Amino acid sequence: MAEAVNTTEAASPTKPSPDPSRPRLNLDDSHQLALLAAEACDDRKAGDIVLLRVEEISSIADWFVIATGFSDVQVRAIARSVEDKIEEESGGRLPLRKEGQKEGRWILLDYGEVIVHALTPDERSYYDLESFWGHGEKEVFLGSESAPPA
User: Fold this and answer.
1) Which of 24, 90, 94, 125 shows its CA 20 to 30 Å from the CA of 30?
2) Does pTM top 0.85 for this prediction?
3) Nearest-10 crossing angle of helices 72-89, 27-43
């Protein structure tokens, strides 16, 4: 007897990996990478950490992680924390591209499937990435501030 095959699944093309030296992460793994980045943002007391699932509306990434740093020094510290945590916990993975570190108002770390944006409040308000990508699924990261006291 023949087995039924899900033709929509078999026919749907897979996106190529943003980093040719690595296989593309599946959506669950890219979500875990986004959560790891969000935890690193939280480690440096970033505010209003949001994960946006953009994989269905864009080919550039699966997830955006957007976090607020309240000074250029804090924005740089958040970005460094993300780099360190992902490198340490994912076997040496480094961002494919980094932008804005010198200025420190908006730092972008591109990990292929996940793009991390650390911004000052003024930059975040001005560029309003959440509205621009608002048709993506939004997940608010509840970090250490929402944890009950020990």
Assistant:
1) 125
2) no
3) 130
